[in-house]
Amino acid sequence: MPILCRPSVAVPEHVITMAQTLDLARRLHADHPRLDLALQLIAHTGVRERHLVQPIARTLTHPGLEARNNLYAREARRRVPPVIQGALRSAAVGATDIDAIIFVSCTGFLMPSMTAWMINNLGFRSDTRQIPIAQLGCAAGGAAINRAADFCLAYPDANVLIVACEFCSLCYQPDDVEVGNLLANGLFGDAVAAAVVRGGGEPGLRGVELERNGSYLVPDTEDWISYAVRSTGFHFQLDRRVPTTMAMLAPALHTLARSHGWEAGDLDFYIIHAGGPRILDDLGAILDVEASAFRHSRATLTDYGNIASAVVLDALRRMFDDDALDPGARGMIAGFGPGITAETCIGTWTSCPDRPLDDRSEEGRAHARQNPCEAEPHSAGRPPVRHDGVRHLADRSGTGRRGALPVRPR
Amino acid sequence: MPILCRPSVAVPEHVITMAQTLDLARRLHADHPRLDLALQLIAHTGVRERHLVQPIARTLTHPGLEARNNLYAREARRRVPPVIQGALRSAAVGATDIDAIIFVSCTGFLMPSMTAWMINNLGFRSDTRQIPIAQLGCAAGGAAINRAADFCLAYPDANVLIVACEFCSLCYQPDDVEVGNLLANGLFGDAVAAAVVRGGGEPGLRGVELERNGSYLVPDTEDWISYAVRSTGFHFQLDRRVPTTMAMLAPALHTLARSHGWEAGDLDFYIIHAGGPRILDDLGAILDVEASAFRHSRATLTDYGNIASAVVLDALRRMFDDDALDPGARGMIAGFGPGITAETCIGTWTSCPDRPLDDRSEEGRAHARQNPCEAEPHSAGRPPVRHDGVRHLADRSGTGRRGALPVRPR
Q1: Peptide bond into A384 cis (omega under 30)
Q2: Of B228, B266, B265, B224, whose CA–CA distance to B245 is shortest?
Q3: What is the pLDDT, as a whole number, of residue B202?
Q4: pLDDT tens string B117-141
Q5: pLDDT band at B200 (very low <50, low <70, confident <90, very high)
Q6: Which residues of A touch B405 (CB under 8 A)?
Q7: What is the complex's ipTM, to 2 decimals?
Q8: In this predicted model, what pLDDT tens digit does every residue of B70-122 receive, in sequence order?
Q9: Of A169, A308, A183, A165, whose CA–CA distance to A237 is shortest?
Q10: Predicted model pTM
Q11: Which of A120, A222, A409 minimises the CB distance to B120?
Q12: What is the pLDDT of residue B203?
C-alpha cells in the first residue's frame, strides 16, 4: 500500500501581517463602496501573516505578464530544490529512486514544465515520468496525492515525488476590485512543498498509508472559482456562494469513507484544505467533529494564509511534527478547488516509533534497512532488485481493497 | 491489460492549403532576410493542408489574449463533444462508465479545466477523476495514453477517456518572425481527438493492448521547444537543433522495447508523433524500418499538419481504419514534445475481426456482450458487479509484466 511520507515545506522570507493587510486595503481602496465588508471578511479569515516571494511594495506592482512569469520561473528554481531535498530525506530515498514527479502549480505557467528543469538539475533519472498539473487550483494538492497513490498501485515498487509550488502573490491584480478580489488579496500566500509517496514501503517509515481515494465535482459550479485569462495574466474570480460549498461536498466525503467501511465523522485525523475559515467551520459542523480535529489545517491558514495546493501538504507536515497519532489511526486528506472539485483520500497512520526515519543520518537509515522493525506490519521492506534491473512485483493477490474503485452511483 | 480503443478525430471546417500558406508567407514577410529559407522549410514539411477553427483572415489577426482564450473555450465546447461520442461508441462504453478523463491541450488555458465542463454537460459521473495536462505540448498525446494505461493498471476495471484538444492557430503570433516561427506558422494545424482506454476488456473489442510504457527526457534540451508566456499569450519558440532530436531519443525507444523482450526496429506497427518530416525520416533510418512503417503518421502530417498532442491519436485512428493488422501484431506509440520529452508505449494489436464493435448499433453491442468472442484470449469480458457496487478486481497474480517499471540506469 502506498505510503505518503513527511512533506517538506518552505515559505518565502517576506512577510505581510494581518494588520499590514488591513492597512493596505484601507489605503488602496479608501473610496471602495464596500470597503467595510472587505475588511470584515479579511479580518475574519484569521490569517495572522503570509509570506511573499517579494517585498510588499514590489508585490503591489504589476510588471506585465511576461516579467511576472519569468519571476515565477526564477523563484520556483530557487525555492523548490530545498523542499525536494527535505522530502527525499524524510522518505529515505534519493533522487534516482523517484519514478514519477507530479508537479502542481496554478500561479505560473511554464512549458516545458518545471519537471524538465528538475530532472536536468536535481539528479532525477531521465526516465522519470513527468506529470505537471496546472488547472486544478487548490484541489491539486489532494489530486497530486491521489494520482501518486494510483501510480504506486499500478507500479507497487514505485516512488512518486509530489511538488506543490504556489506563488499566489504573483497573481495579484491591482485593478481587480470586486469584494471577492479584495478578500483574495488578503487571504492567499506563497509557499512551496514536496512529499514522496512510496509504493514499496521501508522499515521504520512514518507516514499515511493511502488506502482509497475519490474525486467529486459539485455539479454546475464551474464559475464559482475560476481564472479569467487576460493579457495581465490569471485573474482570480471568486463567487460569493463558495463559502457555502461544504454542504454540497460533504456527501462525497461520506461516500468515500463508507465505501471503505469507515465513517467520515469518526476518524482519527483530518487534513482539510483550509481555503478559508468557513470551510473548516462548516465541515466540522457537518461531520460533527471537534474543532481541534482540524487544528493542523487551521494552523496553516493562520500562519501562512491559503497557500493553494500546498495547504494539505503543510497541514500534513504539522501532523507529522505533532507526532500524536498511534499506528493504525485512520484519517482523511481532502483538497478542494475550482470545479468545484474535491480530491479526497483516506488512509492509516503507520509508524515505527522507535526508529523514526525523518531527518536521520545516512548511517541511521542504512541501519534501519538492515534491521527492519518487525513490529510494523506495513514495513515489509523494499522488494529485492532482480539481476535484470526490474524489481520483483509485489504479490497483488489477497489485497482486498487495492485497486477497487469506490462505490459510485450509476 | 488495458486496451486503447479506436480514437475519434475531428478537424475544423476552415482549410488552408500549402499553396496558400506559401503565398501568405511571401506576402506577409516580403522583406524578411531569410524568407527563402522559411519557404523552403515550409515546402519541405509535406503538409498538404491544415484545418483551422476560423477563416484564414481572422486567424491572422490577434484580438488579445483574453478574446483568444475565450474563443478557445467556445471552440473546445463546440468541437470536443462529437469526438467524445465517437470514442465512447468505439469502446462500447457510455459516459457513466468512464472513471477518469485525461484532457491534454497546450493551446489554451482554462481553470476549471474542460474536464469540469465535460462532467457537467456530457453525462459523465461527478466522481470522474479529472487529469488535465497543459504543459507537455505535443508529447501529451503519448503521455495521456500512458497515464490512462497506468490508471487501468491501478484499477483493472476502470475506463479512461483521453481527449486532446489543440487549436494551434490560436497561438499564432503575428510579430514572431524568427525562421522557426515562420516554419511553425506553416506546420501546425487544429484538431480535436478522443479515445478510451478500457481496463476491463470487452468481447469483440478492437484495439492496442498497452503492455509497457516509458518516458524519457533528453538532457539539457529544455529551451529547444518552449513557450514564452507574454501578454499576447503563448509564444512558440523552436530551436534549429530540434530536427536532430531523433538520434538522442532513439536509445530510449530501444531501452523500452528491450525491457519487454522486443526490438524497437522489429515491430509490426509504429505510431510516431509527426512533428515534422525529418522526425519520421530520421527515426525510420535509425530504427532501420521501411518508410511505409510510418505511413499513418505521415498521412496525419500531410492531411492535417502537426496537430500537436492529437497527432498520435489521429495516426492511430488511421491504423484502425486501415485494418491491416493481425491479432498479436506488436507495435509502438511515441509522442515527442517539449522537454525534450518522449512518451512511448508498446503493445499488441487485439481484435475480434468477426464482430468489430466500432460504429455498431446498440443492439449489435448488446449482442456482442451476450455472445463473447471465444477465440480472443483478451476478451475475458467485464467482471461482474458485486451487490455493493464495487466491481470484482481482476486477479492480478500471474501477469508477469504488469506493473513492472522498465529497466533504468541507477
Answers
A1: no
A2: B224
A3: 74
A4: 999 999 999 999 999 999 999 999 9
A5: confident
A6: 99, 155, 157-158, 390-391
A7: 0.88
A8: 999 999 999 999 999 999 999 999 999 999 999 999 999 999 999 999 999 99
A9: A183
A10: 0.89
A11: A222
A12: 75
**SS3 labels along chain B:** CCEECCCEEECCCEEEEHHHHHHHHHHHCCCCCCHHHHHHHHHHCCCCEEEECCCHHHHCCCCCHHHHHHHHHHHHHHHHHHHHHHHHHHHCCCHHHCCEEEEECCCCCCCCCHHHHHHHHCCCCCCCEEEEECCCHHHHHHHHHHHHHHHHHHCCCCEEEEEEEEEHHHHCCCCCCCHHHHHHHCCECEEEEEEEEECCCCCCCCEEEEEEEEEEECCCCCCCEEEEEECCEEEEEECCCHHHCHHHHHHHHHHHHHHCCCCCCCCCEEEECCCCHHHHHHHHHHHCCCHHHHHHHHHHHHHHCECHHHHHHHHHHHHHHHCCCCCCCEEEEEEEECCCEEEEEEEEEECCCCCCCCCCCHHHHHHHHHCCCCCCCCCCCCCCECCCCCECCCCCCCCCCCCCCCCCCC
Q: Would the CB atoms of B134 and A135 count as touching at under 8 Å?
A: yes
Are the C-beta atoms of residues B269 and B295 closer than 8 Å to each other? no
Cell of A300: 496553516
- When mean pLDDT is compared across A159-168, B35-44, B341-350, B351-360, the lowest value belongs to B351-360
Helix axes B65-91, B114-121, angle to 10 degrees: 50
The residue count for chain B:
410
Structure confidence at residue B404 (pLDDT): 52
Q: Which of residues 29-58 of A touch B (CB under 8 A)?
A: none
Dihedral Cα A91, A95, A100, A102, nearest 10 deg: 70
Reported residue count of chain A is: 410
The reported pLDDT for the residue numbered B48 is 98
**Helix ranges restricted to H, A277-334:** 277-287, 295-304, 311-322
Cis upstream peptide for B340 (omega within 30°): yes
Contacts of B104 in chain A (CB under 8 A): none
**Chain A interface mutation, best of B72, B107, B126, highest count of A Cβ atoms under 10 Å:** B126
Nearest residue of A to residue B260, measured between CA atoms: A390
Alpha carbons B148 and B198: distance in angstroms, whole number: 9
What is the sign, positive or negative, of the torsion defined by CA atoms of B77, B81, B87, B88?
Answer: positive
Q: Is A99 helix (H, G, I), strand (E, B) or coil?
A: coil
Helix or strand or coil: residue A184?
helix
Q: What percent of chain B has pLDDT over 70?
A: 86
Name residue B170's amino acid: L
The one-letter code for the residue type at B178 is: E
CA B9 to chain centre: 10
Give pLDDT, residue B171: 97
The torsion angle over the Cα atoms of residues A227, A230, A234 and A238, rounded to 10 degrees, is -40
Chain A interface includes B397 (CB < 8 A):
yes
What is the radius of gyration, based on Cα positions, of chain B? Answer: 21
pLDDT in tens, B247-274: 999 999 999 999 999 999 999 999 999 9
Ranges under pLDDT 50 in chain A: 354-402, 406-410
And the C-alpha cell for A350?
503507520
Place of cell 507574454: B230
Say if residue B389's pLDDT is above 60: no
Q: Which residue has the cell 459550479?
A: A221
